[in-house]
Amino acid sequence: MSYFVDVQRDIENPDLPSDEDFLRWVSLALTGRKTAGEMCIRLVEPEESQQLNTDYRGKASPTNVLSFPFEGPADIPMDLLGDLAICAEIVAQEAKEQNKLPHHHWAHMVIHGTLHLIGFDHIDDVDAEQMETLEIALLASLNIPDPYQQGV
């Protein structure tokens, strides 16, 4: 398995996960689902997150993670998965509000976003249950509690 993650850090914050953490979480999400892949994780400020969320989802507020799957020509095989834009401030705020360890919430956001890049979604209840069940299992393999349980 060959995975490459380009982490773009325009934010100065020593509490952010390491590049190795990001690669470990992406690899976990992709193992058994993709044999190779390249992606970019961009850590953004709330203003950029809000602009992206407005432009691409029509929602005028910052959000935790946005996924932008790569859509290349169907007849040219590529291992490009796409990009994640993660708002560090929102992730930290949510972790605090939900009484979660920041590192655990980061792992969840990266795994969640990566699964979106490879086609998982949660628009309807059946898809949401499938995606959440997978996230819970992947996080449990890291000894991270179920992120969908309040106060965990």
TrEMBL record:
Q: Cellular component GO terms, alphabetically?
A: cytoplasm
Cofactor(s) this protein requires: Zn(2+)
- Keywords on this record? Cytoplasm, Endonuclease, Hydrolase, Metal-binding, Nuclease, Ribosome biogenesis, rRNA processing, Zinc
The note describing how and how many cofactors are bound reads: Binds 1 zinc ion.
Name the source's superkingdom. Bacteria
Q: Can you tell me which residues bind Zn(2+)?
A: 112, 116, 122
In terms of SUPFAM superfamilies, this protein maps to:
Metalloproteases ('zincins'), catalytic domain
- Which EC number(s) does UniProt give? 3.1.-.-
Give one Pfam family: YbeY
**Per its database record, what is this protein's job?**
Single strand-specific metallo-endoribonuclease involved in late-stage 70S ribosome quality control and in maturation of the 3' terminus of the 16S rRNA.
The record's section on PANTHER family has:
ENDORIBONUCLEASE YBEY, CHLOROPLASTIC
Q: Which NCBIfam families match?
A: rRNA maturation RNase YbeY
**What family is this?**
Belongs to the endoribonuclease YbeY family.
What this protein is called in its record is: Endoribonuclease YbeY
Which organism does this sequence originate in?
Neptunomonas antarctica
| Lineage, opening ranks | Bacteria, Pseudomonadati, Pseudomonadota, Gammaproteobacteria, Oceanospirillales
Q: What gene codes for this chain?
A: ybeY
